[in-house]
Fold these 3 entries.
Entry 1:
Amino acid sequence: MDRMTAATSSPTPAPAKRVLLAAPRGYCAGVDRAVIAVEKALEQYGAPVYVRHEIVHNKYVVKTLEKKGAIFVDETVEVPEGNIVIFSAHGVAPTVHEEARRGKLATIDATCPLVTKVHKEAVRFAKEDYDILLIGHEGHEEVIGTSGEAPDHIQLVDGPGDVENVEVRDPDKVVWLSQTTLSVDETMETVGALKERFPNLLSPPSDDICYATQNRQTAVKQMGAEADLVIVVGSKNSSNSVRLVEVALGAGARDAHLVDYAEEIDEAWLEGVTTVGVTSGASVPEILVEGVLEWLAARGFGDVEVIRAAEESITFSLPKELRRDLRTEAAELAAGPADGDASQG
Ligand code: 10E
Ligand code: SF4
């Protein structure tokens, strides 16, 4: 460019600031069902209702349900005899069901049906005397529950680096299963390494990493490649939310952070940024994403483009114990007041 042109041309406009909003994001069918189960139980039986473990790994959800009368406990033995306890969406080991029976507790099992599916696979392969390699994160509630279905047959494989530690009885009778919320790519890497050691390794009958985990990762991959910064809304103990940060970085995002609330976003993250990707984990209510979008709009990022990777329409019916009681109540209401109630009117 010569001097004259430079002197007369208008300054280059700043690149437009924009937000890429991932879809699908937020609540999956299993989380929706579990949260509604706690709400309905509170309406049906009155507070308090006990919940073993965070119903889903989200601070806001837990706080909101606590305000409505839910009491979260770490172990079933903490629930006073005769009360109701709800098991979280992550699932529990059979020993937890036994503890509840011993404690004379009524239970509502809000385990996601897709986690139950993995439990059933574990039981089936253990019955057939397979060595089961469960790919997952040590200490995670779901892994503890699944392992508890067949503790003598299951060993945990926590990522590709753990493959060398695996020891099996018969290398021709080994199957892998997994936690539902893992990184798809990292899991395939782990499976590849396992197959090198055990060429006859059997795979699960259908994907253990659930549809919601896969779809949220596909969406974040699509936008991660274009984003300077990706903000994932989710809690620190939410495995699937943490995976979204990793997937975003792996897809090429320059920077990515996990936040529970908009207030946790650091203004410094926006330096030199024109494209911000936004998504949320499967346990995150949309109101928290809306807060982040408002926060960004107030800083010039008001232009929002949705990046849709998949349509989701899956829903699950409420836990059977709750459906039974809701049906009974509806039938009683339809039948009119019972004899004993008539005098109260
Ligand atoms: O830590 P996770 O991602 O397993 O749990 P979450 O509560 O954040 O999301 C819901 C996922 C469940 C219940 C596990 N399948
Ligand atoms: Fe179920 Fe998947 Fe949601 Fe977990 S993330 S609760 S397995 S739908």
Note: Confidence is low (pLDDT under 50) at residues 1-8, 338-345.
Entry 2:
Amino acid sequence: PPILAKDRDGTAHTLAAADGDSLMVALRNAGLSVEGTCGGNMSCGTCHIYVQNAAPGQLPPVSADEAALLADLPDVTADSRLSCQIPVTPTLAGLSIVVAPD
Ligand code: FES
């Protein structure tokens, strides 16, 4: 599904991500500056994004582990998510995200 993603440098991308990937992998594959160094194991925080327009229920809820890691990251806002914890599904169509600062 098409997902609008803005990179750290402001570059806008439209992702045609494959179902089954995590959003972190989809962003990385599209060349955005998302490192995902822990491979989605919720230990690095380098997949931090801001979700700008999620509709209620569009994203999976934040788990306790995700919330705990987010709380340790700089620049966290109410829109913060770990992109490795968001599976790409058709329900993400139209979602708009921004890669968080380093
Ligand atoms: Fe490491 Fe998401 S990839 S926390």
Note: DSSP finds two helices and five strands in the chain.
Entry 3:
Amino acid sequence: MIALPSAKDLRRQARDAASRCGVDLDSFAGDRAVNSPINGQPLVSVRWQHAADVDGVVTRAGEAFRAWRTVPAPVRGGLVRRFGELLREHKEDLGTLVSLEVGKITSEALGEVQEMIDICEFAVGLSRQLYGKTISSERPGHRLMETWHPLGVVGVISAFNFPVAVWSWNTALAVVCGDPVVWKPSELAPLSALASAALLDRAIAETGAPAQLSQVLIGGADLGQALVDHSGVALLSATGSTRMGRSAGPRVADRFGRSLLELGGNNAAIVTPSADLDLTTRGIVFSAAGTAGQRCTTMRRVIAHVDVIDELTDRLAAVYRRLPVGSPIADGTLVGPLIHDAAYKSMRNALEAAQQQGGQLIVGGRRRFADEAPDAYYAEPAIVRMPEQTDIVRQETFAPILYVLPYRTLDEAVALNNDVPQGLSSSIFTSDQAEAERFLAADGSDCGIANVNIGTSGAEIGGAFGGEKETGGGRESGSDAWRSYMRRATNTINFSGELPLAQGVEFTV
Ligand code: UN1
């Protein structure tokens, strides 16, 4: 049995939460249903914009850019500070919308909003730290330096699984870097997008920043395509499938735009014989089953030493058997629904393929609550023991399937970790420092994120986030990811009163 609130109650919750954030959903009413994965029923219907609208939106963003780029960066930080305060005030409202629209359990939905608050704090500090270098010149009486300037309009395409946090990583940085943002959220999650954007609009109005600094495009893939191709978009930051990135990346490059891609992951943990299996089990379960396996950082593979693989698999299976699957807004649930029927179908297909390729289904994989909620897709997270890393294991299936593979030597384990097309996140569970260092070394994990004794998901905002190979190479969020949102100028300043040329060149007439 699943205790589901009535469809009417879910609709009321969505409406109330949006309204508290300043969004009157009636003013966006249209013919496109926004379904809740909790019951598979419409929460509300919205109007979609058209590709023809994009040019005007980008042009207005360009106007905002020309005003905003000369505002001092610490003043720009003031806007982000106010936005962060509003996010704190409305954390529960946004969390509710995230749960209703994409099915995240309450704690993870609130965690997503916390990431938004955290990146705002980071960006406010950053607004006084957009440092360039001073470099020694080879010529007397000269100085070299670099200056970082605002880049231009930033287009953000975000995915359903982090419907608001990924936009805020981009937006908080872009705004302090002097750039306006045009956002095309996932068509599956327009409500949390409208609510987040309304809070930013309020901060913009209160601080007197240009109104068109933040704009949202509600609609389908054609809007994203128009952003990809628009020469007025200086940076396109896109999160989604490798297929989407393979199309968008070259098109942005073709017009000499900049892109920041955050695409698929196929993240693994290596478990060595010295690993603390209690901690390892907890770390794996959160990363593999959390968010119903729908994070790009979700752990999809465990590469376990032959001496521990049986015990580890037994421990994982025991925890999986008691994982509470159910309504994401009910107390105690840890695994909510998949986003839609296609996600469930891809899970079923992958499980079938894995078994054809020699895999043994250890636990999970069944659909739950199909009688009470025929249009919602709740699935038991699955564990499949694989004899080797077959084709299906090398693919990213955006669902909670964990493949467990054996290894004998650490070199073999590292090779398996790296032998997938994606390169986002990875971890090693070990108590042996040499093994940990080997995993983190130049010939270790080839991923953008490599962890020790924690899972692959749930990164903090302070580090740069992103990965290599088919993950797309982009870095968002913390560290020096801000540089993608600015252009660098190298300046040579001559205060010598002479004109010596570099490289000893003589050119006197
Ligand atoms: C994503 O799934 O697109 O590290 C982002 C994590 C989160 C972000 C995931 N902080 O799991």
Note: The radius of gyration is 24 Å.
